[in-house]
Design goal:
Immunoglobulin-like
Length: 215
Amino acid sequence: MRRMDPRRRRRGWRRWLWPVVIGLGVGAIAASDWVVGRYQDHLVEVKREHRKKLEKMAWFYIRADLDHVEYTPDNKYRVTTWIENAFPEHPAYVMMPNVRAYVQVGPQWQEISGVEPAESRWAEGTVVRLDGRVETQRIFDIQEKDYFELLPGYMHVRFDNVMYISDEAEPKDDVLERASVYYIHLRPFGADDAKLKAMNNFPSDVPVYISMPPH
């Protein structure tokens, strides 16, 4: 019987061993890609769910509105707004907003300068955990004379309230922006109350401002 040359046996092993090794390598790469893909899909889903949670918090849990407007001794307007978390069992953090004011002049909105009062408790940009209602104030100097009158004798004024909301005090992920707009009719300083009352058929005292629905 002839014996097989050992070198030929080694060459035979190599012929089928290399395809096996290559196949295993390709399989390992494919498995690694699958694991990475699944992990990335998981991260995307986690981010999506967190975004939905923040949106629900911003538009259903948190409420905000204009509280009141009053004159200051130096003939300016003190505007108070409020923010609250209607469901405090769900932690909510809000960066205190910079409320901006605009008066309509013709077809355009003209921005009005505003400052925080010296006694303000919450400075703009402060991050606050909403456990109850929080008020913010700004003082606006509105001297415009050529204002548009949507209601006779009153200025047509808009306030933009932009808040940044998170479920963490120091968020590492999404922060949601919520923008609210408030419209009012605002009584100008020095207005003739008797004339305003007659033009608008007010049944009693002439109000400093009248809230309006969004438009």
